[in-house]
Amino acid sequence: MPVKKRYPVPSDIEIAQEAELLPITEVAKKAGILDEELEPYGKYMAKIDYAKVLERTKDRPNGKFVTVTAITPTPLGEGKTVTAFGLGQALALKGIKVINTFREPSKGPTFGIKGGAAGGGYSQGLPMENINLNFTGDIHACETAQNLCAAAIDAHIFHGNQLRLDPENITWTYCQDLNSRALREVVVGLGGKTVGGYPRRTNFDITVATETAAIIALTTGLKDLRERLGRIVVGYTYDNKPVTAEDLKVAGAMCALLLDAIKPNLVQSTEGHPMICHGFPFANVAHGNNSNMANMVALKLADVVVTESGFGADCGFVKLVDVGCRQSGVKVDAAVIVASIRALKQHGGAFHLRPGMPYSRVKEAAETENLPALEKGCENLKRNIEIAKEHGVKAIVAINRFTTDTDKEVELVRQKALEFGADGVAVSEAWAKGGEGALELADAVLKAIETPSDMKFTFPDDIPLEEKIRSVATKVHLADDIELAPPAKRKLQLFQELGFGWLSVNMAKTHLSLSHDPDWVGVPRNYKMPIRDVRASVGAGFVYPICGAMMTMPGLPSRPAFMDVDVDVETGKIKGLF
Predict the structure, then answer these.
(1) Among residues 257, 279, 305, which one ends one of the domains?
(2) pTM above 0.85, yes or no
């Protein structure tokens, strides 16, 4: 194994830097990838020629597909990624041919509040620093393609606007892969016609929330990619006719920029088993799952594929089913729902930690046994189990155990999960023990996937967009109804008239609540889901309703994570990254 364990457990970056990584060619052999299907990026990372792999394995049946999701998250972090990686490591220890698939971290969270997203402790993806920073350049390629299209729009208007694109009805955004609230609303084109062109209001999205990012994650091949880019709607004419990237003659160049970015990336875990890191959409404003391409390749190579769906089951899991699986044809066999004792206590009202608030303010309440609050908080666990099972998917609860959790607390959650209909419950200690700490979870998952699932979508394809949105709001989020703001209602009517009714739905909402309000913990009821805007990502294949005050460009906190990141100039090693 690349990493030798020592205790007490060192920091994530120490563990990553102590690792003696396997050459990527050895990892590829474990995965069943041939030399001619591998494009190395240095010694420890590589691109996979998906077309060759899929052609060679086209007659091979898919492996089992397991996603790791969670209860409604809190700022404490529930440990989905580390649990997903630990489960993969445990399955590998049991002799199962397994591949983990996961998203590429955005530098927004890496340098913002959350930090990196490559797992933690002894269940990490390696090389951790590369994965968390520039990696193989996929996000940069996405950013360049998105901004090329934005530049093409402004150039077209400057040079006479033959398409009659209404500058006040442009929907395409500029982007960058960093948090910056100052870019949420900007004016471009200042300086007069000879300098800046036509002044107009626009905005920046964080790169991983753009339509280009969604297209990279959802595409199923080069031909599909080119078609998706061509049908992107960048805005509307003065008489409300859509203008596409194909109309602007920029779709071909965007495709050229993304040619390598759609190839999945092969890396390894701290225990040397194969992992594919590819795609990067957020789960609150985007669809929150790694690429279809990564899953399609992994399912042909492995007997079990473990992926991770962002945030709670109402976010990433539902979007995996309704967006990702609907478009790729892949079926989910089981969902692991990660819960932590301290997060359930927050849902039960023991304390309320808000994003950016220091943990020290709630430490005592979070780490003190409180069975009444824990039992009340388990209502949120129940709802997330129900969401998986209502979609026809087996639900296994993983209790991500912390050292301060008492035996009584763990046993209460175990009993409640089984009472709520979970198909298995296991304690996971992957952070401290790697694969050995997730063997119980691996057994529960293997038992659950012995029988096939019957995965169901939230809504059919052939109902109006408004009804699709209402279905998600009422069936998943338990709202009584939706409340459409006038602009949202007008847009939905226009989208239907333009023939966009086939699009799926990807709710853009807070991840901190089952509702639209981040302060409503537990299981909110008796409310209407407010939809203030609806945007059409025609290339990606979905509309995304903006629920409540949701933003598509995050801001930095008062003390961002980047303040701790530096480089040791003597050794050249990065420090402070987590």
Answers:
(1) 257
(2) yes
